[in-house]
Write a structure and sequence with these properties.
By secondary structure, the chain is α/β, with parallel strands linked by helices. The chain contains 14 helices and five strands. It has a five-stranded parallel beta sheet with strand order 2-3-4-1-5.
């Protein structure tokens, strides 16, 4: 195509207007319109639909890349057979993202290997595909990120960056044994999002054990109060972990292995969850 041709001029103008799909497809659509007898309005509408679809696709690709979700932990690979009925009932609503508009939190409890991370990641994928910005991050990594920002005197700016995400998925909050500085930045993050933005949290510790995270009773109570005020609380209960069941399937009738799995199975803490304020929100 010659640089001084009308087609080249039109393409440049379409790119200036940030209509790349128009620029790429207008000749193809014009040919089809001529062959099928479309009106100018029909051809223009078709180009608009192509542009909108392409923009939506590119936006979702950007959101999924920014979300940093673990690969393959999607709804399609989620095994929900052993989950309580409450979790099954809540899942479609959570995937719709309506709770984000109300700045509600999702708190998922369960022993290791019960599918907490997979569940939250799958929700994250669905939210991103609906155009909602999400971020998946381990609690330990987020705390270190906030500590660096505090050290560099840019903590407020970092919190503003995190505000760009409708939901931040904090994985494994129960594994972080906080020093005071770490506890303070984590509490600051949670307090900053209170009633404004959502957090989705996985924890192997029930609320009565959260003093291991926040160290003192007052800060623990304040953190729990903010999280459960507007929240959906789920507990994933099963006798063995998904990983243990997979290993058992591989080892079959190995009596020693089955005995080890039986001895390692820990009791659930369902009663500790149910008696927390906001547990049935």
């Amino acid at each position: 195509m010659k640089k001084d041709s009308p087609q080249h001029s039109l393409m440049m103008r379409l790119r200036t207007l940030k209509l790349p799909t128009f620029a790429a497809m207008y000749e193809t659509v014009a040919l089809r319109a001529e062959q099928d007898g479309w009106t100018f309005g029909q051809a223009l509408q078709h180009l608009c639909e192509l542009e909108i679809d392409d923009r939506r696709t590119r936006k979702i690709e950007r959101l999924l890349k920014a979300a940093d979700l673990p690969p393959d932990k999607t709804l399609a690979t989620l095994d929900t057979k052993r989950w309580p009925a409450k979790v099954h009932r809540q899942l479609p609503a959570l995937c719709s993202g309506d709770f984000l508009d109300r700045a509600e939190n999702v708190l998922v409890f369960g022993l290791p290997g019960r599918g907490k991370t997979h569940l939250c990641a799958a929700i994250g994928y669905e939210l991103a595909r609906r155009g909602r910005p999400v971020l998946f991050v381990s609690t330990a990594m987020l705390v270190q990120r906030l500590l660096r920002a505090k050290r560099d005197l840019v903590l407020e700016r970092e919190l503003e960056r995190l505000d760009a995400f409708d939901a931040v998925i904090l994985d494994d909050i129960g594994y972080v044994q906080q020093e005071r500085d770490e506890m303070e930045v984590l509490f600051t993050f949670l307090a900053a999002r209170y009633e404004r933005k959502s957090v989705i949290i996985t924890s192997n510790l029930v609320f009565s054990q959260w003093d291991r995270i926040f160290k003192d009773a007052m800060t623990t109570a304040a953190a729990i109060d903010r999280l459960v005020h507007h929240s959906v609380i789920l507990e994933l209960v099963s006798k063995r972990s998904f990983r243990a069941d997979a290993a058992l399937a591989r080892n079959g009738n190995d009596d020693n292995y089955q005995e080890a799995l039986t001895q390692s199975a820990a009791p659930t803490h369902e009663h500790d969850i149910e008696h927390q304020p906001g547990g049935d929100v």
